[in-house]
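Known limitations

Files may contain more than one protein. Parsers should not assume a single record per file. Below, a two-record file is shown to illustrate correct handling: read the sequence, read the token line, then continue until end of file.
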Amino acid sequence: LSPIELTAYTLPGRKHEATFALNCAHKALHYYADLFQIDYPMSKLDLVAVPDLFYPAMEDWALILFK
């Protein structure tokens, strides 16, 4: 798996949740790269916790929004 810059953004005081999200993303990227024998095509992935997000989650290129 090529190096990927993982970044998480969350509200102040919720660093532990950002750490959890980063750990999950790291494991998932490696798991799917091994499973499909394909690297993640982007050089970075941003994770953003949005408490009032209408949908439970939303994915875009290099950006994942979640509650």
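...continuing to the second record:
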Amino acid sequence: MFYPRVENKAYTPANTIESLLEDAVASNYNMIRVWGGGQYESEKFLELASRKGIMLFYDFMFSDSIYPSTEEFLLNVEE
């Protein structure tokens, strides 16, 4: 399974996250690698994965780009 930017807030329908995690469970996944790139998924994503028994492996969050230094971005990282 590869779903780039699972939660791009600009275009992700509300039920997409749950649907993707249900697909993972149906496929007998017990862990999903969340590719880095400097964007953390929402609490909703984390909660749904936990509820469905799926471990999340965050990988190299800041490995391959020049990241913004805007206040919004830095606050997201800090959280």
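Parsers that stop after the first record will miss the second one. For reference, the second record is described as follows. Strands lie at 31-35, 55-59.
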